[in-house]
Amino acid sequence: MKYINANEILPDVLVKELQKYVQAGYIYIPAKSEQHKSWGELSGYRRELERRNKAILAEYHRGVPIGELADRYCLSVFAIRKIIYQK
Do the Cβ atoms of 24 and 5 come closer than 8 Å? Predict the structure, then answer.
């Protein structure tokens, strides 16, 4: 998340009002609920994990042992089992 100086985007009146509550600190302003993005949606990481998990599942169905999958993907055996047995 990128921080923005309030003086650059807010009217002086609003900055002075905010300074009554916080000075030289950080305020998180959440997105409106209709604009909220799910985890990993902006970065694309969620899709990347889904592709990885599908590859793990496909390899498992082709007979690759769980231990080998764990080594190959740098995950624990427990994590591989969670991917395989989800749903």
Answer: no
Give CA 81 to chain center in angstroms: 22
Tell me how crowded residue 66 is: count the other CB atoms within 10 A of its CB: 16
Is the pLDDT score of 33 beyond 80? no
Question: For the CA atoms of the chain, what is the radius of gyration?
Answer: 22
Rounded distance, CA 7 to CA 79, Å? 46
For tokens 């990128």, the residue is 2
* Alpha carbon distance 22, 2 (integer Å): 19
Task: Identify the pLDDT of residue 1.
Answer: 65
How far apart are the C-alpha atoms of 3 and 26, rounded to whole Å?
8
Domain borders along the chain are 6-85
